[in-house]
Amino acid sequence: MVKVEKILKSSMVVSLCLFLVMSCICPISVSADVIKTVTISTSARVGNASTSINLTEDQIGRKGTSTPYARLFYKANLSSITTPVISAKLKFKAKIQSGGNLNLYKVTADWATATINDSNKPTTDSTSFASTALTYSSGSYVLKEFDITAYVQALQTNNDNLVNLMMDYTHASSSGLDTRIAIMGVTSVSTTSRPYIEIVAEDSRPVFDKPVTVNKTISSIGVIDNQNPTVNPYETREGTYTDAIGTTTYNSTDYDRRIFYKVDLSDSVGKNITSAKLVFKDRRMKSGLKMEVFKVTSTWDMGTISYNNAPAYDTTSIVSTTTPGYEAAATLKELDITSYIKSLSVGDSVANIMLKASGTDMGRSDLSQMYGINSVTPPCIEVAYTDVISSLSDSEITASCLVEKGSVAVPQNAIPILALFNGTTMEKIVIGTEQAIEGSGVVSATIDLTGMTIGASHKLKMYIWDGMVNLTPVLCDPGVLPGY
After folding, report:
1. Which of 79, 162, 235, 470 has the fewest CB atoms within 10 Å, i.e. the most exposed one?
2. In the predicted model, is pLDDT for residue 340 greater than 90?
3. Which of the listed ranges 27-36, 213-222, 238-247, 451-460 does the model predict with the highest average pLDDT?
4. Which stretches of 268-349 are assigned E, i.e. beta strand?
5. How many Å from the N-terminal Cα to the C-terminal Cα in the chain?
């Protein structure tokens, strides 16, 4: 009996392998995030005449320009959100009878449904952090939303799970006009009409690579100047600036002054670089000055560089920008040089660039003034990267995916299938244990990588199998291998 089961299982593995290969199920849309819904647990409509708790419909607003007729207080608990929040929206249905604005405020004190009223209502921020203009909705309920991402992220940062908000409605109408607005309440007969918070959060899957951002201060600077062609006239003006840089003609006099930067990025090169920026502080003296960054293709020394022996550089810039206008004070600027930094190699990890500014009919005093490497804000290259794992062996990995109703057609009981691909070649397949998920839930399976070397080209794909003929790709990315 045991042998038969083993033969049957082996046969199913072969069939599934053929099915996966023949079906070419590789271009699967994947998402590293999950969407969760947090219900508004408590509401209080607080008016200057009465207070109502957890209604099926809340009417808030003003009568004319008089004092507020009623405000709406909401509370919700975020304890179910255990991973970093990417976005958060407060969603609700409202019947809009006229224009005006809905405004959302942070509530700065707790309140209880048993005691809250207009006289003791909790304090709020003096200004709203979100507002939306309204238009007449023909007497029908329409879905409205507020983006509360920053607010919810701040709660997470402070380890606070309590969403505590107040909404009011304002309308600049003539006195006496009823401009209240109706909002479906937390006890609405239709559960889909109740207010809620839609949260997109990071998946809790294990990952090997964590993003790192490093700032590498420019270590060498060279200034070349056609007015001083035999030296590196690098200097600090008032302890802050290098001299003005630029290439221009003014009163028949040609000015050509450029800056060369070098810095060793050996701790970043060879990693999975996601972005790189040249960050510097300068004061723009006139609009229309074009700033460009070029790749330098030969070596130079800070002590000997000059206009006459300037190193070679590419004729096409890596990135360029045009100055918007005069600045009374210097500000930080960023130029995206990701493509260039990605082109560096482990054996050639020194970033070697030139910054050139060119304008038309500008005097030397019109050109950009740059903060130098000895200033309080020296230039730097900011690199963001994730580690690349070259190999992974002798280990088991459990991959989990969240399957929600509507994302895939999922049976009551599902068998997770893990397929290991090296590029487009499938190297291993594992049939997991049948799991009861009733249309939604987390499915998991474990794959043994003992004796295998896993590199950046390997990927795991998860499928849901009904045990018969239906094999459905799960729209999520297990994210546990170096290739992600």
Report:
1. 79
2. yes
3. 213-222
4. 272-283, 290-295, 319-322, 331-336
5. 41
Strands in 108-217 per DSSP E: 130-133, 141-147, 162-170, 181-184, 196-202, 212-217
- Quick one: CA dihedral 447, 452, 453, 457, positive or negative? negative
Task: Label residue 238 exposed, middle or buried (CB < 10 Å: 0-12, 13-18, 19+).
Answer: exposed
Distances in Å between the Cα of 282 and the Cα atoms of 205, 294, 323, 380 are 43, 18, 11, 13
Burial track 6-18 (b if 16+ CB lie within 10 A, e otherwise): eeeeeebeeebee
**251-286 per-position pLDDT tens digit:** 556 777 788 999 999 888 877 788 899 998 888 777
What is the rounded CA–CA span in Å between residue 390 and residue 26?
23
**CA 251 from centroid of its chain's CA atoms:** 49
Distance CA(385)–CA(211), nearest Å, equals 6
- Domain 213-386 falls in which CATH fold? Jelly Rolls (2.60.120)
pLDDT tens-place string over residues 215-230? 888 888 878 777 778 8
Fold topology of 2-32+390-473: Immunoglobulin-like (2.60.40)
Q: Which residues contact 191 (CB under 8 A, 6 or more apart)?
A: none
Spell out the alpha helix ranges (H) of 147-257. 149-157
Q: Do the Cβ atoms of 312 and 298 come closer than 8 Å?
A: yes
CATH class for domain 34-202? Answer: mainly beta
Domain residue spans of the chain:
2-32+390-473, 34-202, 213-386
Whether 350 contacts 247, CB under 8 Å: no
- pLDDT value of residue 200: 85
Dist CA 452 CA 481 (whole Å) = 13
DSSP 160: -
Q: How confident is the model at residue 464 (pLDDT cuts 50, 70, 90)?
A: confident
Same fold, 2-32+390-473 and 213-386: no
